[in-house]
Design a protein that fits this description.
3-stranded mixed β-sheet; globular; 8-stranded parallel beta barrel; alpha/beta; 13 helices
Length: 314
C-alpha cells in the first residue's frame, strides 16, 4: 500500500493547482482516508520562490519573490489535525547543484534550516528531514554535501534523514542510461559514503523499464541494507510513457509497481505525488480522480482479505 506522499507546490515542472489552505485541508483528509501517514515536502523553496517568507533566503538569494501563504504552517497544521508525520525538504537554489557548485547549496541550507527549526521545530508533526537535491550516481563532491548537511540537520533536530535518488535509466536517459551492473557499482560506493549520514533511501521507480524494475528494487534494497540504510520505494503515480508531461499513471502500471515493491520486501511505499496525480480532489487532471477510485477499490479489497496481500508479495 502507499502510505506516504511528497507534497509538490514550489514545483519544478508540474503546474500548480492553486489550492487554498482549505483545499489542502480536504486533501489531507483524503490522504488519511487512503492510509497515508507520512508526507514529504519535496522542497522548501526553489530558485526565487519559497513555501514561507524566509528572512534567510531574502538575505542570501537576490530578488526572492514574496511568499503570500505560509505553506509549511498549513501543512503542519493539517498533518497534526489528521495524525500525519511531515518530513521537511531543504531549499534548492536551482543553480549551484546543476552547475557543479554543490557546496554552495549546503552553505545556503545551513542558516535556512536553522531558521526553519526556530519557526517550526516545536511542531508535533515535524518528524524528519528530506535532502531535496537529487542524485543518480556516486559523485564525491555531492557525497560531501550530503554528509555536511546531514551533520548540520541532526544538530538542529535529531530526526530521520530521507533521500530519494533517481535511476539513470532508459526512459529518461536513452543511450546514456546505466546498465544494472553499472548502477550497482556506483551505488555500492555511494552508500559506503552515506553510511551513518542518511537513514532512508527511497529510489524513484519511473526511469527504468517495467520489466527491469524488480531487479533494481532488489539491488537497491540489498546495497542499502549492507550499510544500515532503510529502503522505501518512491512509486511514481505519474506516467512517463506518453508524449504529455506528466499525466496520472495507468492504474495497471501503478498497481504493478506497488506489488513489486511489496515483493522486494521494501519497508514503505511512498509516491510522487498524491495531490496532483491520484487525489479525489485533483483539479489539474480529472483522471487522477479515477486513478484514486481504482486504487481505493483495490486497497479495500486487500484490507478485507489479508491473504491477498501475502499473495501480492509473492
Amino acid at each position: 500500500m502507499i502510505t506516504g506522499t511528497f507534497l509538490d507546490e514550489i514545483t519544478h515542472d508540474i503546474p500548480s493547482q492553486n489550492w487554498s489552505p482549505d483545499d489542502w485541508g480536504r486533501d489531507f483528509d483524503s490522504m488519511a482516508a487512503d492510509g497515508i501517514d507520512t508526507v514529504i515536502l519535496i522542497r522548501a523553496g526553489y530558485r526565487k520562490r519559497a513555501t514561507f517568507a524566509s528572512k534567510t533566503l531574502q538575505r542570501m538569494i537576490p530578488r526572492m519573490l514574496p511568499a503570500y501563504t505560509d505553506l509549511v504552517d498549513v501543512y503542519l497544521y493539517h498533518a497534526e489535525r489528521v495524525g500525519i508525520t511531515l518530513f521537511f525538504g531543504t531549499y534548492d537554489a536551482g543553480v549551484y547543484w546543476d552547475g557543479g557548485d554543490y557546496a554552495v547549496e549546503a552553505e545556503i541550507n545551513k542558516p535556512f534550516c536553522a531558521e526553519v527549526i526556530a519557526r517550526y521545530g516545536h511542531r508535533k508533526a515535524f518528524g524528519g528531514w528530506y535532502i531535496s537535491h537529487e542524485i543518480a550516481t556516486h559523485n564525491a563532491p555531492m557525497m560531501d554535501v550530503y554528509r555536511d548537511l546531514s551533520i548540520h540537520l541532526r544538530r538542529l533536530k535529531a530526526l530521520p534523514i530521507l533521500m530519494s535518488p533517481f535511476i539513470q535509466g532508459k526512459k529518461q536517459f536513452g543511450d546514456e542510461a546505466l546498465t544494472l551492473d553499472q548502477h550497482e557499482a556506483s551505488w555500492r560506493k555511494a552508500f559506503a559514503d552515506l553510511e551513518g549520514y542518511v537513514d532512508i533511501a527511497a529510489f524513484q521507480d519511473g526511469n527504468v523499464d517495467l520489466a527491469e524494475l524488480p531487479d533494481y528494487l532488489r539491488v537497491n534494497r540489498d546495497l542499502a541494507a549492507n550499510h544500515g540504510i532503510r529502503s522505501w520505494s518512491n512509486c511514481e503515480s505519474f506516467g512517463r510513457d506518453t508524449p504529455i508531461r506528466f499525466p496520472p499513471a495507468d492504474w495497471n502500471v501503478l498497481r504493478y509497481k506497488i506489488e513489486q515493491a511489496q515483493a522486494a520486501g521494501l519497508e514503505k511505499t511512498i509516491t510522487f505525488e498524491y495531490s496532483h496525480f491520484m487525489s479525489p480532489n485533483a483539479t489539474l487532471w480529472p483522471s487522477a480522480r479515477t486513478l484514486n477510485a481504482r486504487y481505493a477499490e483495490w486497497r479495500q479489497s486487500r484490507l478485507a482479505q489479508p491473504e491477498l496481500l501475502a499473495a501480492d508479495a509473492r
